[in-house]
Design a protein that fits this description.
Elements (H helix, E strand, L loop, with lengths): L16 H25 L2 H26 L15 H29 L6 H23 L6 H30 L4 H28 L9 H9 L4 E13 L2 E10 L9 H14 L7 E7 L1 H5 L7
Helix pairs in contact: 1-2, 1-4, 2-3, 2-5, 3-5, 3-6, 4-5, 5-6
């Protein structure tokens, strides 16, 4: 016997595709402009920034695909639809961000030892073009950046681009005014120091979802305590909580009740009380809950009990 509510898990998801389309289109346009500039000037710094932009543009493309697929309805084979795809997409993007950060760090150290000749004026022009495009994309993504893992990753992709553009501009100004070519390498190392921690945090958060860790802000011991406070509840075991996707925490448990509850009609009231408990008493409200009510005798017959 369970409590919850039937619904289509592939629907009812906020549609962020328009936002992602604008960010993707803007980023791709800047990518093309920077690629032309890199070929035209032969600048290694600009070529590296173009590679970063290519990586981020691909990441936004993946985010857009994921945002489209999550709207497909649930099926008998995929009971949650494609909701978790946004977590997988964010995990992949975080891994790419981390790889780019490491690459920038390694390349920056190499350039410190043997700095190449960098044309300052061309760097400045294309750095400004990149920054303007990134600011447009950031403005579009800003308000929804915390809505899903997918948008968090997309936002970080564009932040990465913006930092790269700022680094190019600063390096160009320093090189133009002082002739110090190592400014380009220093800017790259600063960018790497900003990218890597954000990528690690996103990897941790998405990894926790895939490992079905308890959602942040949900204390299972407090949940158990509240459930035990419901009338006629004697014991709670096999208590599990996890996150399917952004905004979709789930919880399940075996709940031992007095034998008479199945005879006097109390079972539906107990289920309703348990559902209300997890929906309203905690920092993370859990709307999708599944509770199995059982007698003490039935509980004793189970072979695999968990906390």
């Amino acid at each position: 016997m369970g409590a919850g509510h039937p619904h289509s898990h592939g629907s009812g998801v906020e549609d962020h595709r328009k936002i992602l389309w604008i960010a993707f289109g803007t980023t791709t346009a800047v990518l093309i402009a920077q690629a032309i500039g890199a070929v035209w000037t032969g600048s290694l710094a600009l070529l590296t920034d173009t590679a970063h932009m290519l990586t981020d543009s691909l990441g936004l493309g993946v985010a857009l695909i994921a945002a489209t697929l999550v709207h497909r309805p649930a099926t008998a084979q995929r009971t949650w639809g494609y909701r978790r795809l946004e977590v997988l997409a964010a995990l992949g993007q975080a891994a790419v961000l981390l790889s780019v950060g490491v690459y920038v760090a390694v390349d920056g150290l190499r350039r410190l030892m043997t700095p190449p000749e960098v044309p300052a004026m061309e760097l400045l022009i294309f750095g400004v073009i990149g920054l303007v495009g990134n600011l447009i994309a950031l403005t579009v993504l800003m308000s929804k950046r915390k809505s899903t893992f997918n948008l968090r990753a997309a936002f970080l992709e564009v932040v990465n681009d913006a930092l790269g553009s700022v680094g190019v501009i600063i390096a160009a100004i320093v090189i133009a005014t002082t002739g110090w070519q190592r400014a380009d390498s220093i800017a790259g190392l600063v960018i790497a120091a900003l990218i890597v921690p954000r990528a690690v945090i996103l990897l941790r958060d998405t990894g926790n979802v895939l490992l079905e860790a308890t959602p942040p802000g949900l204390d299972l011991e407090k949940v158990r305590e509240h459930m035990l406070g419901v009338d006629h509840v004697l014991e709670v075991h096999d208590l599990h909580a996890s996150t399917v996707a952004t905004g979709l925490p789930v919880i399940s448990a075996h709940v031992v009740v007095a034998d008479g509850c199945f005879e006097d009609g109390h079972a539906p009231q107990i289920l309703a009380a348990l559902k209300k408990c997890v929906e309203s008493h905690f920092e993370v409200p859990v709307e999708h809950s599944t509770f199995q009510l059982e007698t003490k005798t039935l509980s004793g017959q189970e072979k695999h009990l968990h906390a």
